[in-house]
Amino acid sequence: MYLIDNLRNVRFVNALRCSFHHLDEYETTPNSLLHSSAGFVPKSTKWVTEEETKNFKSMFPYLVKDLTNSNVYEINPDATKRLINALEYNVPHGKMVCGLVAVAFYKAIEDPAKLTNENIHLANILGWCVHLLYSSFIITDDITDCSKIRRGSPCWYLPENVGLNSITDAVWIENLIYTILQKYFSKHRCYKKMLMGQTLDMICTQNGVPQLNRFDMKLYKSIVNLKTAPLFILPIMLAMHMASRGNEVLYKEVCKISLDLGHYLQVQNDFMDCFGDSNVTGKFGSDIEDGKCTWLIIQALQRGSQTQRNILENNYGKGGSENVAAVRSVYEDLKLSNIYGIFEEKTCALIGSDIEKLVSDELQHRFFRNFLNSIYKSQS
């Protein structure tokens, strides 16, 4: 089966661990309706209901209690307290898009006769597994990027009583997923297909210096395909497994849409990192300082004059405020904001057209349409 081959592919499985820091603050309702030449006009402005979100969030306290039951997991009181603090600080926050996608898509594709309270409960648990995985990656991602703020609060590694112990917390949170899967899904037909793997780091710097001569769209698309697209693929495929729905044709169609969504989301994230409002996004962008391979730097390298390229080479990947200002000045002179706007319109029109061609029923079409609508022109 196409999906299982993908899940067994080392690059695909490992990429899951690098894919979860771009959807955190996306709204479940759009900032504006999406209209395109492809005729993409959503019938609804939501892909997940308020009731579904409320039910999903309400499960967290019970899940924490279940996971930290000393009698069951033999965790000592001090360790239990630390785990509870780590979970409560890092997990039940943000829009929880990754987890909610698993729940909403499962309900959209499951046979109505099988949408029992028990199965919906299991779908919510599955969604929390996805969100726990995402949360564990965010902890280590913030350390790697030396980030300061996450969702309006200090990153988990910053408090004095945490520090680099946060790495242990991240591993601990990730491993809780396997405990959950074993407890709730060990007898389920989809259990073995749900197990997830290790990490993959995409390195585009050498000795801390960005390799601008290597930055091009081919490299960028490779990073996106391994880093961001799995964010959407994972909960969708888990839901399809749980519902035992889909075939090779549908899997391929969904994967293509997921790759396109991943590319759009990554470009959007790159743009917001530089030009977004930190009061809205809840974090301060650092791609320029970190020398990341982003859509913006690639566009600047492709479109800029030799003088502008020299400015980029002398300032990109350096942490000084004057260095960042110099790079941003080049971006602004090249009017990359306008170029991004054109890219966004064309990309969403193409994705909308592909969604309409999906070999599936109206419920699946509606889900994908509404999800695309919810991230279009997002400011967070």
Automatic annotation (TrEMBL):
<keyword id="KW-0460">Magnesium</keyword>
<dbReference type="GO" id="GO:0004161">
    <property type="term" value="F:dimethylallyltranstransferase activity"/>
</dbReference>
<dbReference type="InterPro" id="IPR008949">
    <property type="entry name" value="Isoprenoid_synthase_dom_sf"/>
</dbReference>
<dbReference type="InterPro" id="IPR033749">
    <property type="entry name" value="Polyprenyl_synt_CS"/>
</dbReference>
<dbReference type="InterPro" id="IPR039702">
    <property type="entry name" value="FPS1-like"/>
</dbReference>
<dbReference type="GO" id="GO:0046872">
    <property type="term" value="F:metal ion binding"/>
</dbReference>
<comment type="similarity">
    <text>Belongs to the FPP/GGPP synthase family.</text>
</comment>
<dbReference type="InterPro" id="IPR000092">
    <property type="entry name" value="Polyprenyl_synt"/>
</dbReference>
<dbReference type="GO" id="GO:0004337">
    <property type="term" value="F:(2E,6E)-farnesyl diphosphate synthase activity"/>
</dbReference>
<dbReference type="Pfam" id="PF00348">
    <property type="entry name" value="polyprenyl_synt"/>
</dbReference>
<dbReference type="GO" id="GO:0042811">
    <property type="term" value="P:pheromone biosynthetic process"/>
</dbReference>
<keyword id="KW-0808">Transferase</keyword>
<comment type="pathway">
    <text>Pheromone biosynthesis.</text>
</comment>
<protein>
    <recommendedName>
        <fullName>Farnesyl pyrophosphate synthase</fullName>
    </recommendedName>
</protein>
<keyword id="KW-0479">Metal-binding</keyword>
<dbReference type="GO" id="GO:0045337">
    <property type="term" value="P:farnesyl diphosphate biosynthetic process"/>
</dbReference>
<dbReference type="GO" id="GO:0005737">
    <property type="term" value="C:cytoplasm"/>
</dbReference>
